[in-house]
Design the sequence.
């Protein structure tokens, strides 16, 4: 693990419990987005990358999906397993997924790519593409913009050391297309969401 990824992991280990207590609500269009994922994934399993304390993984499972939650932070995975004992959670990095090729019908990456260093994002998209089955979809949530901010505390004032990277949709689309994806344009979605298909 690089020093940058290690800082992300340690930061979210520190705030895992308080994050789960404080972040209870999702973004607008979340239910619609997860309903769409359930429709497009069909009978194939779904991967929740950067699952945090498992809130989104649980919502996906409620839609009848077989879902695996992955997070870089062991502390977050511990909270996930505590709060959702029947679901499958694993420690892992989106840049090196310990999963078989073409194993998933859909991936949800819900505001998790924002912490990945910019130079590592193409590696993350390449891994997403690798583990998706042909026709599988990637639903991505992110902060729109161009700036990078350094987050030194959060979720109850606990110390953190992570960077938050904002992206323009066209920048992420360019990276996704380079990895092999095509933009899925059959539905209207908010500006801070992107949907791609393998």
Sequence:
């Amino acid at each position: 693990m690089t020093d940058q990824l290690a800082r992300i992991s340690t930061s979210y280990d520190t705030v895992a419990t308080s994050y789960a207590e404080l972040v209870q609500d999702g973004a607008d269009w979340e239910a619609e987005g997860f309903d769409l994922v359930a429709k497009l994934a069909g009978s194939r399993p779904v991967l929740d990358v950067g699952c945090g304390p498992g809130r989104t993984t649980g919502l996906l499972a409620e839609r009848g999906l077989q879902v695996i939650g992955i997070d870089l932070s062991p502390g977050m995975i511990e909270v996930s397993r505590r709060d959702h004992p029947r679901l499958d959670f694993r420690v892992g990095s989106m840049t090196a997924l310990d999963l078989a090729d073409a194993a998933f019908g859909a991936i949800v990456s819900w505001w998790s790519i924002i912490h990945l260093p910019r130079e590592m994002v193409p590696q993350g998209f390449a891994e997403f593409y690798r583990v998706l089955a042909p026709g599988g979809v990637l639903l991505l949530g992110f902060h729109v913009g161009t700036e990078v901010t350094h987050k030194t505390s959060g979720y109850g004032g606990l110390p953190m050391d992570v960077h938050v990277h904002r992206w323009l949709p066209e920048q992420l689309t360019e990276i996704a297309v380079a990895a092999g994806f095509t933009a899925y344009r059959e539905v209207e979605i908010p500006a801070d969401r992107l949907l791609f298909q393998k």
